[in-house]
C-alpha cells in the first residue's frame, strides 16, 4: 500500500509527479482513456488496419494494432532484437513483403512520453542484422514507462498484463525492457523471478548486441482494469484473476489460501486490516470504527505507513481475513488476501460507485473475494461541513460530474474525508461475519 502513504512518485518517462496529492489526475486520464478506447480499430503510421498487417503468404498476423489500448506483435521464426536508443526487432519472413511498424510496448499506448520500438518484417536473412548471441527461448519486449510507480497502475498496467503474456512460457522467456527501472523491478523481484528465469535486458543500453530468438512478443496489455477476462485473453492461456492471486501467493511463499471459517473455529476472532489514509479520504472517526469492529468480534489492526519491507508487508496482509478501507490505491493490497476473504470498500460521497466497482469491486469478485460496498452518505462527508447540504456538490453530484472530471477529482476524491455513522455501518460488519461462516 505504498501508494497510500508515499509523498511523491515520479513518472520516469515524463518527469511528472504522481503521489496522493495527484491521485485525482488519474481520473482525468481515465476519462480520456475511455474515449480513446472506444475506437476498436486503430491504424499504424504506415497505413492500414489489422487486415493489412497480415502476412500475405500464410495469413498469419504479425502486429495487431486493432485495439485502442495497446498493440501486440508476435514474431515467430528467426527474430532478432537490436538494442540501443532506437531499438529494433526484425523477423525474417521469406514469403512476406517487407513491412515496418512503430510499436509502443506498453499497456496504454496513447500516453505521452512512451518510446517506440521498430518492428520489421524482411524476406531475407541478409536484410536483418547478424546475430551476436542466440537463445532457444522466446523473448518479450515491454516498456516500464507510462504510469509505472502508482501502486494500482503497477499491477493494472504492468504486472497483470505481464502475467497474461509471459506465464504461458513457464519461466523460459527473456524480458527485453525499454525504460528499465531497476529499483522498481527490485521491489517486485519475486514476481519477475517467477515469470522469467533469465537475465532481464536493458534494451536501450544493449549497444552492439543482436539477440536472436525463435519467438519474440512485442507489447503487452489487458482488456480490463485490474483483472483478467479469460474470454478476452489474446494469448489463449485462459488465465483468470484467481490464477494470478495464486501465482502471487506462490511468488511470495504466502501461507494462507483460505480465510478463517467461523463455524469450524468456535470462539475465534477473524482478523481485520483497516487501511489508514494520510491525505484525502481519511477516516475522521477511525477510533470509533475500530471500536465498532472489535465489539462485533473482530481482531483489528490499523495499517498506516508500512515499517517492514514490501515482501514482509504482503505476508502480513495475507494473515488477515478482512480488508477495510476507503476507495484508493491501498486497496490494491487485496491481491494478497486469501481466496474467500472479504474486501469492504468505503465509497466516498459523490456518485463514485461505478468507479469504485470498476477499480476494485469487480476485480475483487474475480479474485474470489467476498466484496461489500459501503456508500458514504452526505451527512458522513466532510464536504457537507464545508459547503452545507444545499450546495450543488452535496445536493446535486450529477451536475458536478457533468461539469467535468476535474471537479469530481478535486472535491470528491481530493478534498473529502469521511465520518462513518457507526449505527449505519454495523450491519456491514454483521454481513462480513456472515461471509466468514
Automatic annotation (TrEMBL):
It holds the Pfam family Glyco_transf_61. It comes from Zizania palustris. Residues 243-344 form the Glycosyltransferase 61 catalytic domain. GO terms for cellular component: Golgi membrane. Residues 1-39 are annotated as: Disordered. It is a single-pass type II membrane protein. GO terms for molecular function: pentosyltransferase activity. Its main location: Golgi. This is Glycosyltransferase 61 catalytic domain-containing protein. It comes from the Eukaryota. Pathway: Glycan metabolism. It is found in: Golgi apparatus membrane.
